[in-house]
Amino acid sequence: MKILITGAAGFIGQLLAKELLNDASHQVVLTDIHEPGVPEGVKYPQNATAIQADLLTGADTVVDASLDAVYAFHGIMSSGSEADFELGMSVNVDATRILLDALRRTCPGVRVIYSSSQAVYGLPLPEVVDDSVIPTPQSSYGAEKIICETLINEYTRRKFITGFVLRFPTISVRPGRPTAAASSFLSGMIREPLDGKQCVIPIEDRAFKSWLCSPKTLVYNLLLTLTLPADALPPHIRQLNVPGICVTVQEMMDALEKVGGKEKLSLLTEREDPALKPILLSWPTRFDNRQAIALGFKRDSSFEDAVRDYQQGM
Fold first, then answer.
1. Are 285 and 212 spatial neighbours (Cβ–Cβ below 8 Å)?
2. Co-location of 116 and 218 in the same domain
């Protein structure tokens, strides 16, 4: 398959590219606003093409008729979108619409796997969110995601593309540096202490719950979406809540202690951030994932396993 990954310089793009480039049957086009690197240590680096492109002006330079699938990962994260409305709308919405139009002109019917988020939901929420709950985002990021979800649904209904919208849980533990996501601390509070660094938890409530998925499990589910039948979902309802697990701040601290030792807890500081707190509290914490599980998606067994996976990869 020939597969395009947008936002390919980012963590998820690089993680997925590494898996795809370990399979000789894939040709992978990596694109981002800055030229993305080819992941180190892959078996078939010669199967990768890296292109620096701004989708707002250069989508046609990365789209061609030979594409079989597109993973759309480009975007400005949650707190970044909230801080700069114009930038968030431009990168998250306008660039996506321009990409979709390039695809429908050049390779109609191509499979598009769009990365959405649990941030499309907002209060009030039931205790457990299922696929029938109507999204009411309480952040610019969530609003931008729901706009793009509607575009994916419409372009699929019109047979311009074959779209799948994956509403990701928060991914933890992410390697690398902190991001502009409101949820960044949910990786940082594990990653930084294991690396001997300080991390601030921006909410003073150890019972605060998050819906999480490990990078390893996310990649499994992303690859699975390549194989789903086109009619696995109705043509105008293409969104799926990707399975996760509900974990409290205290449970995350317990996992850090078990894996890294009690001394790592001293590197954590709990200090409430009044700008982030409303965003964090608007997100759902439990999902009914029966539809996704029935399609073959999987969830993590425990957060401690996710921490151990990260530690082994350090």
1. no
2. yes
Q: Are 114 and 166 in contact (CB under 8 A)?
A: yes
Strands (E), the chain: 2-6, 27-32, 48-52, 69-72, 111-117, 162-168, 170-171, 199-201, 209-213, 239-241, 245-248, 268-270
Provide the domain limits for residue 233.
Answer: 2-169+214-241
Residue 292 forms part of a structural domain? no
Under DSSP, is residue 163 helix (H, G, I), strand (E, B) or coil?
strand
For residue range 5-39, list pLDDT tens digits in order: 999 999 999 999 999 999 999 999 999 999 999 99
Helix axes 303-313, 185-194, angle to 10 degrees: 50
Residues 192 and 221 both lie in one domain: no
Give the separation between CA 103 and CA 166, rounded to whole angstroms. 19
167 within 8 A of 241, measured Cβ to Cβ: yes
Instruction: Give, rounded to a whole angstrom, the gap between the first and last alpha carbons of the chain.
Output: 31
Structure tokens at 84: 């700069």
CB-based contacts of 306, cutoff 8 Å, min separation 6: 172, 173, 212, 214, 216, 255, 300
Q: How far apart are CA 64 and CA 181, in angstroms?
A: 32
Co-location of 90 and 232 in the same domain: yes
Active site residues: 141
Q: Are residues 133 and 223 in the same domain?
A: yes
**Cβ neighbours, 10 Å, residue 158:** 12
What are the backbone dihedrals phi and psi of residue 205, each rounded to the nearest 5 degrees, phi first? -155, 100
Residue 211's DSSP bridge partners are 246
Residue matched to tokens 């707002």 = 56
Q: Do 152 and 193 meet the contact criterion of CB atoms below 8 Å apart?
A: no
pTM of the predicted model as reported, rounded to 2 decimal places: 0.92
Whether residues 59 and 80 fall in one domain: yes
Same domain for 21 and 74?
Answer: yes
- Cβ burial of 263 (10 Å; 0-12, 13-18, 19+) is exposed
Q: Are residues 82 and 193 in the same domain?
A: no
In tens, the pLDDT along 94-138 reads: 999 999 999 999 999 999 999 999 999 998 999 999 988 999 999
